Amino acid sequence: MGTILLIGLLIPVVYLMQLTKKKAMINLKRTLNTVIISMVSVLITTILFIVFSHIHISIWSTVISAIIVSIVWALLLSGCYYVYQVLSNNVNNK
Length: 94
Prior knowledge:
The protein is an all-alpha fold. It contains three helices and no strands.
C-alpha cells in the first residue's frame, strides 16, 4: 500500500522534472499547476489506500490532511526547483 502513496507523491516530481528538462522558469502559474497536480494525485491515492486497506477511519479528516500534505509537498518541490534555478543560472525566461 505504501507504493501507491509513493506514486501519488512522485507525480508532481515528474512534472517539475519536465520543467527542468525544458529549462522553463518557475512562476506562479507553474507553481499553481504543481499544487493542483499534487492535490489530485495525493487525493486519489489516499482514497485508493482507504478503499483497499479497509481501515475504519474518518474519511473527511483523511481527505483534509491529504490536501494539506499535498499543498505543502508541492510548495516544497517548487521552492527546491526555484533554488535550483537560482544556483544553476541555466533557465530560459519563457
